[in-house]
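Long-time lurker. I teach an intro course on protein structure, and each term I like to show students one example going from raw sequence to a predicted 3D structure in token notation. This year I'd like something fresh instead of my usual example. Would anyone be willing to generate the tokens for the chain below so I can use it in lecture? Attribution to the forum is fine with me.
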Amino acid sequence: MTTIANAVQMINTAKKITFLTGAGVSTPSGIPDYRSLKGVYQGIDQPEYLLSHDCLVREPKKFYRFVKQLYHPQARPNIIHQKIAALAEKKPVWVVSQNIDGLHDKAKTPRVVNFHGNLYDVYCCKCHQKVLWENYLIRDTHENCGGHLRPNIVLYGEGFKEDVINQAIHAVKAADLIVIIGTSFQVAPFNQLLNYRDSAAKVMAINQTALAIQEPFTMIQCAAEDLFNEINI
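-- Reply from a regular --
Happy to contribute to a lecture. Here you go:
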């Protein structure tokens, strides 16, 4: 069984790393995940609908009430974000994140692909003007044109932008070590990114529950913050 010490050595000796991160990376910053017993979806009927394009169009007020609770502007990058950003100063590092909280950007990681977008990037659906997220938390209509505001995130029922997909594929192809952190790795197309890795690249997963991945990989079953605490940079 691979230990935390072995995992740290793999990260330290890798020349080019791409981190594929999920909600478990942000929970130590006080941001709840989606599907756990304490997650955002717990106790909600049809939560995917509330985070869908259909809900935005048909019931914008219901969409707005749900999305507002996803904002945690007081959250700060934790040891995982910080150590990844520090590694990026020493060697080529990419992050492809499912998270929409922007914490990798707050940590000043230079090469981040926000695969599902960013809650703090808000625009008007009518005139397409950018709007401060602080204003969005006060009202969901644009004071200039009356159009509905929305965060620039990928909703259920929406497609992914080609440039985002291409950036993510490039990040995976570039790595000799791919580290999956804090995600069940079951949501497509994020979980299909491994298909684009170099055949010689190693894959490691750091998660509190074991993952089922088709490709050969090293599983580290622990809290990711415990492992990143052991990385000295």
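Some talking points for your students: The first helix runs from residue 4 to 13. Residues 1-31+77-116+160-216+227-233 form a domain with the Rossmann fold fold (CATH 3.40.50.1220).
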